Amino acid sequence: MNATLAATIAATPEILWRPMREADIAVVATIEAGAHIAPWTAGNFRDALAAGYGATVGEANAGIVAYGVLLFAPGEAQLLNLTVVGALRRRGIGRDLLRRFLSYAAELGAEQCFLEVRASNAAAISLYAAEGFVPVARRAGYYPASHPGEVREDALVLRRALRES
User: Fold this and answer.
1) By CB count within 10 A, which of 50, 60, 109, 143 is most buried?
2) Do 112 and 160 touch, CB atoms closer than 8 A?
3) Percentages helix, strand, coil for the chain, rounded to the nearest 5?
4) pLDDT digits (tens, 9 = 90+) for 42-65
5) Alpha carbon of residue 77 to chain centroid
6) pLDDT tens-digit readout, 67-81
7) 27 and 20 in contact (C-beta within 8 Å)?
């Protein structure tokens, strides 16, 4: 581990948020592959950028440490991906990105935001609940199994209102 990365991990770094660019995709896809059981591919990120989805990266001294993708549709947004590198999780970086996305979606006129999360992802579910998301559905067998021989995992569909009814 280089000294800059070690220093970044030792303290919660100041994050510079900016739109994801094509040049970021290789790094983002590498982080993704190490962070998720069923990761997005570089092609998935490329398609999201081409489609005009809201894609953001967070940079610290050592490079990209967080990223996310938000889909916009009339009246709503859907959080498709929100990832923080493992060594920097539980330091408020994911919450910051989530709040940025929710604010941006509201500015664009979205009345609600949806997301899907593995039923076993207690840390993410806790974050989303603390930010006002509530469960609205369950998708049985939505995610691939975590390990060979295990069953597919359910997804919880969560919703948060962005405007008062």
Assistant:
1) 60
2) yes
3) 35, 35, 30
4) 999 999 999 999 999 999 987 999
5) 13
6) 999 999 999 999 999
7) no
Q: Say if residues 131 and 117 touch (Cβ distance below 8 Å).
A: no
Measured in degrees and rounded to the nearest 5, phi and psi for residue 10 equal -65, -35
Which of 85, 84, 86, 82 lies closest to 69 in space, CA to CA?
82
Answer for the pair 56, 100: CB distance below 8 angstroms, yes or no: yes
Length of the chain: 165
Q: What is the token pair recorded at 6?
A: 């070690």
Residue 150 DSSP code = S
Phi, psi for 139 (deg, rounded to 5): -105, 105
At 65, list the tokens: 């440490």
Per the CB < 8 A criterion, the answer to whether 66 and 88 are in contact is: yes
Q: Are 72 and 79 in contact (CB under 8 A)?
A: no
Query: Could you please report the per-residue DSSP string of 37-91?
Result: SSPPPHHHHHHHHHTT-EEEEEEETTEEEEEEEEEEETTEEEEEEEEE-GGGTTS
CB 91 within 8 A of CB 12: yes
Closest among 10, 3, 46 to 28, alpha carbons compared = 46
